[in-house]
Amino acid sequence: MKINEALKNYALVPKRYENADSVSIVTTNDGKYVFKDKKANLNIVKFLKSRNFDYMPRFINDIALDEYQIMEYVSSFDIPKERQILDLITLVALLHSKTTHYKEVERNYYEEIYEDIKGNLDYLYDYYTDVITLIESKVFMSPSEYLLARNINTIYDSIDVCSNYLESWHNLVQDKRKRRDVVLHNNLKLDHFIRNESSFLISWDKAKIGSPVFDLYKLYRYHALDFDFDEVMREYENNYPLTDDEKELWYTLISMPPLIEFKGSEYERCLKISHEIDILYKTHLLITKTT
């Protein structure tokens, strides 16, 4: 549906349009609104409302019927990013706290997760072994190949660390028959956080139910090199402590190296490898400080 038609249904007359990521910001005769041409997750919205979690822009349209979203535009204060990330993680802890519920699981639930992660680690080990064998067979390495070869032990060490935490997690959960679930925003980053007199999370299109660890992991992967995550995690756990098995799963996920493919230009490959190696070093320091 065109924006003008959607706004007309709510007696709003557009005067100015701005594009920002996947939304349109529209100045109307009755103020500023955000239009997103995508249906809201009604079940998640209802669940959040039932738990009195109101830290999201207000919908002005009927999201139960409409295939789009119209929300009030919320402006943000200009505050330091170091303060923003702590305010964000405090709000995430509140989200998880208010939406916590427990679910019975089948006997093989945790076993399937264990086998899936273990399979990924085995694949990563074989992948990097094949890559480094090929690189070392060359007379001359490209800059990106040399960068990976120089840091391959960091990748292998991370696989070992990840394997150890996976086994520790598996020992803690193999007899469990319940799991702790929360509403996951599932797309956490500072771009989706607004701070003024209150705090707001925006962009809920990927929201789902799952372990709180997955929100933390996605935030970490996005901002690992931007902030001191030791402080971020302390702030989170001051408000919503992780269980022992959740901590082991958190360490498992963040210590798992990504699969680095040799795609793009040589410059882009060097940037990618350097970025991922820096995250692995940062993760090693984080784990050392927090365990």
Number of helices: 10
CATH architectural group of the largest domain = Alpha-Beta Complex
What's the CATH first level of the largest domain?
A: Alpha Beta
Largest sheet: 4 strands, antiparallel
CATH third-level topology of the largest domain: Aminoglycoside 3'-phosphotransferase, Chain: A, domain 2
- Low-confidence spans: pLDDT under 50, at least 5 residues? none
Kindly state the percentage of residues in helix.
40-55%
> Which strand order do you get reading across the main beta sheet?
1-2-3-4
Description:
The chain is of the alpha+beta class and 291 residues long. It has 2 domains: 3-73, Phosphorylase Kinase, domain 1 (2-Layer Sandwich), CATH 3.30.200; 98-290, Alpha-Beta Complex (Aminoglycoside 3'-phosphotransferase, Chain: A, domain 2). Helices cover 52% and strands 15% of the residues. The chain has a 4-stranded antiparallel β-sheet with strand order 1-2-3-4. Strands 5-6-9 form a 3-stranded antiparallel β-sheet. Strands 7-8 form a two-stranded antiparallel ribbon. The protein is globular and about 70 Å long.
Describe the secondary structure blueprint for this structure.
Layout: H1 3-8, E1 14-20, E2 23-28, E3 31-36, H2 42-50, E4 69-72, H3 81-98, E5 101-104, H4 109-136, H5 143-150, H6 152-173, E6 178-184, E7 193-195, E8 199-201, E9 208-210, H7 212-223, H8 229-239, H9 244-255, H10 266-290
Summarize the structure.
The chain is of the alpha+beta class and 291 residues long.
Keywords:
single chain, 291 residues, alpha+beta, Phosphorylase Kinase, domain 1, Aminoglycoside 3'-phosphotransferase, Chain: A, domain 2, four-stranded antiparallel beta sheet, three-stranded antiparallel beta sheet, 10 helices, 15% strand, globular
